[in-house]
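Hello again, I could really use a second opinion on something today. I've been staring at a protein lately and its backbone has me curious. You're getting the sequence in one-letter code plus the fold written as tokens. I'd be grateful if you could look everything over and explain what you see. No rush at all, and the record is pasted right below:
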Amino acid sequence: MNLLATIRLAFRALRRNKMRTLLTMLGIIIGVGAVIAMVALGRGAKSQVEARIASLGQNLIMIFSGSVNRSGVYTGSGGAGTLTVDDAEAIAKEVPDVVAISPETRSGAQIMAGNNNWSTSVMGESPDYLNIRQWDLDEGAMFGDSDVRGATKVCILGQTTAGKLFPDESPVGKIIRIKNVPMKVIGLLSPKGFSIMGTDQDDIIIAPYTTVMKRFAGTTTLRTINVQAASMDALTDVQNSITELLRQRHRIQSGRDDDFMIRNQKEISDTANATTAVLTGLLAGIASVSLLVGGIGIMNIMLVSVTERTREIGIRMAVGARGRDILVQFLIEAITLSSTGGILGIALGVLGAQAMTYFKEWPTTVSPESIFIAVCSSALVGILSGFYPAWKASKLDPIDALRYE
């Protein structure tokens, strides 16, 4: 018997019990759909995290004031207070591949503008800060080096802060009061959205770091130094050079802990991607259980089918069908069930992913790789689950099969 005739017989057997065929495919449909939807959800979360990391800036290295041990007591993260403006200037001059640097200090304050007020963070930065963060201005201009040297009373506002203080007008050119200090607004930042930590990046005021240090924070040290490297490949070398320079400047002896911490954008990205990869794998693993259940369902139905069609198998063998023909027929039936279910499952998974985005506003990304893997998985499930029933059918004795009632 040729292969084409065997395929026709397999399809005829599936059409004979349409409801049972549909119910058998249902497990594969749900399994494949669940895998695609869950992987799409995980990939969507990954892309969102990557976008938020990218919003931090380009080729960014962040140096934080660390902790120190004073008489056996650790001050905790940020308690060292040993980062200075001189450190930032030394990094800019002595470390190769540093293209921009911004000393950073921060102070919380209640801001007033006319009859409106708002509590937010006032960040002291250098003119390079917007270039480091890849942050544009909607209106106005960034302050300059002369404003930093003179600690002038100018600032730029984030969109959220501007909306609270000046809901119906442009803030550029207006005067706000920060801790009773009048500050002129010279620029309005473009929207940035939420950070990777979930904080609103647009709820901010940026002023020259000298102004914030002298007029608001009352400190001579920095909490953070933002550094932009020349390229992503240079991040590690720049970070190592900064570590060596700061240890030398802070006179930290060999074997002693640093009084600062350094993180680069690649490390943050790798950590976040590892987390989302675990999440995606967990979701896909849970959804894959449905595929396993669907495969067991196919095997169960095929075993029942072999039992029901024992006499038919005996007749076919009696008229010349070989065991190989019986094996191929039942395998084709199992693969057809799983493959058709896989195709319908792909449609269900794509629609499910789109539904999560539409109704729940969860980001999802359906990738061709996940579809390919789902199709291959469903076909493999069909082969594995159908092989034993097919092999059992092919080994039936024709005489015993003909006698079966």
Summary: The radius of gyration is 33 Å. The first strand starts at residue 60 and ends at 65. Residues 83-249 form one domain. The longest helix spans residues 265-308.
